[in-house]
Design a protein that fits this description.
heterodimer; A: 332 residues; mainly alpha; MetI-like fold; B: 332 residues; alpha/beta; Rossmann fold; 2 domains; eight-stranded mixed β-sheet; five-stranded antiparallel β-sheet; 12 helices; 13 strands; 32% helix; disordered C terminus
Chain lengths: 332, 332
């Protein structure tokens, strides 16, 4: 890989991050809310004069007493020190602390979901391509029609109702003690797995079928390529042709969609988390939204954007490692 | 001819493709003999069944959809038609190999050319990776790839068209097979590069006494290399002759037309003798002689009955009711 290519991509990623940062900072400031009132809501036994003084003090405390540009510079400076701001919530906790508290719980769901979707999807996709036109292939095609028409949250509702309420096989709601009592013991891990089963299943069915269908199409496209015929003419066995020649080429489009999935890992699934009462990033974001907690929203948005930018950058670099033809500006 | 002198003896090869609209008869019972160490050319327009013939010999046609029937398919007196698929795999690349048309698409784009040749030695000669690479470098050297050692680490897109074609030739010759099938080996190349590549192919063939089945529509290629020529039209052999005889006195009107389509500098008075129209669609072949709609010598007989392949002299056979250039008669 060319060094200049690498540097170009990194600079571009930094530029995108800057744009996101600017938009993220200024858009909430279009609103007319006085942040001081949000940090320190008026109390009943307080005169207007007293409250004005308190508000002035609060503004100074949180840096709202200076111009917007100065605020932005301070904000940027804070970011580099890992400070995402302070939430409007009672007790005014740090946004970064709130995220750090919720992120692992979202990752439990999203990473497991991605791994399951990817591996099972790759497997059934390859089988379907291999058995093109037979029942395995037809089944996958029909499943993908159904799963397209059946959104994950709807599936979640059905699963929650049927397996949670009717059969009582899995918890329909997450037990709040799961989070507070978590101590890395095997018992606690088992509880998490038990509680996470339904959300993960409802998330991953669509993913499995999506990756399956994508893999199937990619593998079939590659199977029709001339170089597969060359590989067979060399006397390679069927497995050698599939694993050494077909899959490597078929991986390219899959890596692209994998990159997109990775950038969505930390956002959390808002609706699924709501249905199962799962305290992850999705729930946190919804709470921030419902209480107009701008600093928290800003923090989450920025964190998600940064993660997506990095994930895209890594994907792109991986892509150029996988496919030697993809290196922009390469010299022959 | 004594059978022990034959490298390939093919009797009554038929290939059909059933489709929704009807049956496509791609190859309709052709016989083909290749003497040891000789180069035989199979000539014809696109769509006349040349490539299908070669893939059928290699047993590389996907079945379904293709249905292949053959009475005799003997490679060096060894009957191949009863071979299991596994045994055939062993044979391909080792005793029977193939050079494909377009080297850009016939090489795996994400694998170095060295690795792609290594595979053959690892598969058939059971060499270690390191030993295989040494053989690969030698093979590349033989076909005139400069700096073979470093070129082996190149990806296909980093090489020129001529070099890529040489790589394919090196692949085909890797295990010094008994028979090589070259399917339009120079069609995708510039004329100057064509000549170089043909020289390499011809040198290698003569030096190593390999039999070669050259499939092409380009008579200038044939003129340089082939000993015997089979002319194919719409799935049938229409003429078989030694090179010299065929060029001097073609017996079949189609052969005459093919020869007439080659521009001659010395001949300033005549325009090209074009063959009007094109090869009939394999599903809607005409009655009688398949060539009659395009033939300027056609009679009523030609429209009604398919002529048999008749022996005219020792090395010459023709399928025509009114063969040309026959001493003491013919249609003229």
């Amino acid at each position: 890989m060319q060094k200049s290519y690498l540097i170009k991509r990194i600079l571009y990623a930094i530029f995108i991050f800057f744009v996101v940062m600017v938009l993220n900072f200024f858009i909430p400031r279009i609103g007319v809310d006085d942040p001081a009132e949000r940090y320190y809501p008026p109390q009943g036994n307080m005169t207007d004069v007293e409250y004005d003084i308190i508000k002035q003090v609060t503004r100074e405390q949180y840096g709202f007493d200076v111009s917007n540009l100065q605020q932005f510079l301070n904000y940027a400076k804070g970011l580099f020190q890992g400070d995402l701001g302070t939430s409007f919530r009672p007790g005014n906790p740090k946004v970064s602390d709130l995220i750090a508290e919720r992120l692992p719980w979202t990752l439990v769901l999203s990473v497991t979901n991605l791994l399951i979707s990817l591996f099972i999807g790759l497997m059934i996709g390859t089988i379907a391509a291999w058995r093109r036109g037979r029942w395995q292939d037809t089944l996958l095609l029909n499943m993908s029609t159904i799963s397209t028409a059946l959104p994950a949250f709807f599936l979640a509702l059905i699963l929650s109702f049927y397996f949670g309420f009717e059969l009582e096989l899995f918890p329909a709601y997450t037990n709040p003690n799961m989070v507070s009592g978590f101590d890395w013991s095997w018992e606690a891990v088992k509880v998490v797995m038990y509680n996470a089963a339904l959300p993960i299943i409802s998330m991953s069915i669509g993913g499995i079928i999506g990756y399956g269908q994508g893999t199937r199409n990619a593998v079939i496209a590659v199977t029709n390529e001339d170089f597969i015929l060359t590989a067979r003419a060399k006397g390679l066995s069927r497995n050698q042709v599939i694993f050494k020649h077909t899959l490597r080429n078929a991986m390219l489009p899959i890596v692209t969609s994998l990159g997109m999935s990775i950038s969505g890992l930390i956002g959390g699934a808002v609706i699924i988390e709501q249905i199962f009462n799962w305290n992850g990033m999705g729930t946190l974001f919804l709470e921030a939204n419902n209480t107009n907690d701008y600093p928290l929203m800003m923090g989450i948005m920025l964190f998600m954007s940064a993660f997506a930018i990095v994930a895209n950058l890594v994907t792109e670099l991986c892509y150029s490692l996988l496919d030697p033809r993809v290196t922009v500006g390469e010299k022959r | 001819m004594n059978e022990s002198e034959l490298m390939l003896k093919l009797r009554n090869l038929k290939v059909i493709f059933p489709s929704g609209q009807g049956i496509i008869k791609a190859v309709e019972g052709i016989n083909l003999d290749i003497e040891k160490g000789k180069c035989v050319a199979l000539v014809g327009e696109s769509g006349c069944g040349k490539s299908v013939t070669s893939l059928a010999i290699m047993r590389l046609l996907n079945s379904p959809p293709a249905i292949v029937k053959v009475d005799e398919l003997k490679l060096d007196q060894e009957e191949l038609k009863d071979y299991s698929d596994g045994k055939m795999q062993e044979l391909r690349g080792r005793t029977l190999s193939m050079i494909f048309q377009d080297a850009m698409t016939a090489l795996n784009p994400v694998m170095t050319i060295g690795k792609q040749i290594d595979e053959i030695y690892i598969r058939h000669n059971h060499l270690s990776k390191k030993e295989a690479r040494a053989e690969t470098i030698r093979a590349l050297d033989l076909v005139g790839v400069p700096e073979a050692k470093s070129r082996a680490n190149s990806f296909p897109h980093q090489l020129s068209g001529g070099l890529r074609q040489r790589v394919l030739i090196a692949m085909a010759f890797a295990c010094m097979p008994k028979l090589i099938i070259a399917d339009e080996p120079t069609t995708a190349l510039d004329v100057t590069i064509q000549a170089q590549v043909l020289n390499v192919l011809s040198d290698m063939q003569k030096k190593h006494q390999v039999s070669l089945l050259l499939i092409t529509h380009d008579l200038s290629v044939v003129a340089n290399m082939a000993d015997t020529i089979y002319v194919m039209y719409s799935g049938k052999i229409v003429e078989k002759a030694d090179k010299r005889d065929l060029f001097l006195s073609p017996h079949h009107p189609y052969t005459e037309g093919l020869l007439g389509s080659v521009p001659k500098l010395s001949d300033t008075q005549h325009h090209f003798v074009q063959i009007p129209d094109s090869v009939p669609h394999p599903m809607f072949k005409p009655t009688g002689c398949y060539f009659h709609p395009r033939c300027r010598y056609k009679t009523k007989k030609c429209e009604e009955r398919m002529p048999p392949l008749v022996k005219i002299d020792e090395n010459c056979e023709v399928r025509c009711w009114h063969p040309l250039h026959i001493k003491g008669g013919g249609s003229q």
